[in-house]
Amino acid sequence: MVSTLEVEALPANNRSPNASTNPDEQIVSYDINLPYKPQSSLEQEQARLRTEYPGYLPQFDDIWFDKLPEFEYQDPALRADKQKPNLLTQGVTFRHITPKMGTVLFGIKLKELSDAGKDELALLIAERKIVAFREQKEFLQAGPQFQQEFMSYFGKPNYQPVTGSVKGYPGFHIIHRDGNQAEIKKFFQHKMTSTLWHQDVSYELQPPGYIMLGILACPDVGGDTVFADTAEAYNRLSPIFQDMINGLKAAHTSEKMIGFARVNGGLVRKDPVTSIHPLVRVHPVTGERSIFLNAEFVTGIVGLKDQESDMLLKFLTDHICMGHDFQARVQWEKDSVVMMDGRNTLHTATVDYDSTVQARHIFRLASMTEKPIPVGGEGDSVRRPNGYKISGHPSREHQTNGDLSNGHTSNGHMFKGHTSNGHTSNGPS
Hints:
Largest sheet: 8 strands, mixed
Low-confidence stretches: 1-13, 15-27, 383-402, 405-429
Helix content: 10-25%
Number of helices: 9
Distance between the termini: 33 Å
Number of strands: 19
Order of helices and strands: EHEEEHEHHEEHEEHHEHEEEEHEEEEE
Shape: globular
């Protein structure tokens, strides 16, 4: 449960009194993947009947969060054994989603992972950017208290300012779409795509570095999430262009999201937050440089005129969104858990499924980490040790624990990977 030192109860008046009640004025959802206010009693009852996890249906508790002050942070990945003996134990196998980004692990029980194993998991996430786990029903049934404590190991919890959460646990961000085809139809009358490339809550002073998605229900086909590797996107730029953007800063703000919730009568739990972050940030574990911007929360480049800022942001956003050779499409499977690095990825959901047939029900927990490190700033000297790179190969038939780059452990042993039971290199599908 959230501490009373962190929030204070508010009367149910933090919905805007000026919210529109005319449905014709509420024509476009801010993010079609999310509900921004409670469903009707009938809709809630229908959702309860259709879900295996009724305790994870979105709740809108009237609580208030003040702006989070700066805090000290030590990344658990910096404590990890790079051979990962506590994570990649005997019998654990894996598949890479792409050669450079994304790995699916088999044979791990997150519910039983030790602290040393969590350190090594943090390191693997820093290296591979996306790590997916199959068959995690025990973890998903362990309850919100256990899950929040698990993620608190990786950083300070982020509390959701506008959308639904688990009752009493505002760190949960609930993604639940069930039977909202009319809303989706109205959305596409005004929008050409459902994609919204973003980092989660990048407007915070210390944005999330480690993020978990728990898959409670999903369509058999569709509703995938696409990830982009913003470190590789940076690497593709010319040295001259890199030098030009290395020292720039961008404004990230939640004003648009908070404004949408207020205008549409949704619950608001926090005033808008605006932070200035480096446009190119340095990863504290790997030393990689990555482009740090997104299409949801960034409003401009500090010091540039409007036209200059707009042009640069459009160029970089288009570069990332159209770079399919440094993206990974993750197909969801029920009872899976996915963890990602929020510092060097962008992601977007895709709405291409019929929510009247199957619901898409996911929880997100986000752990806030360090202030983004600028190029040349303190922490920019961190570099991966020699022999540390783990590029991997998605078509390798034999995979193993230890260094994921070549299918061999340090003692030369090899374990057979999952190749005979339908597992492919296309993610957790």
